[in-house]
Amino acid sequence: MLKAVATRARKAGFLCVLGVAFVLSPAMGHARNAPSTGGAIPPIALAELPPQGRDTYALIREGGPFPYDKDGTVFGNRERLLPAHKRGYYREYTVRTPGSRNRGARRIVCGGKPRVPDACYYTSDHYASFREIVE
């Protein structure tokens, strides 16, 4: 009998913990995906970008050609750190990282029309944070 009571208590405790986790998970997920800047994306001057970032930005304004096949592809904004827009609004471009064997973590993401985007954003940490490029 004592064994049965202990088994029921463990199950009840597990279900209680599971229920709390289930209830809190949407709030925790939202907080993780929300910008840490209170919704404002901090600026970065074009002159402050690394030289490779300025080169990529110039290629974007010229319409290419781009060195990577993925450059110019749709950026889905799954992190929801950039202002919300319809799918296809944002495009991503690689910022070369010296010494990297792959594309690295640095990108510029632009929204709007190619060559004349509404806004461009720089990330040095593979979409974990963004800064709006200002000229």
UniProtKB/TrEMBL annotation:
Pfam families: Ribonuclease. This is Ribonuclease N. CDD domains: RNase_Sa (cd00607). One of its GO terms (molecular function) is RNA endonuclease activity. Gene3D superfamilies: Microbial ribonucleases. It comes from Acidovorax kalamii. It comes from the Bacteria. Coiled coil: none annotated. InterPro entries: N1-like, Ribonuclease/ribotoxin. The keyword Thylakoid does not apply.
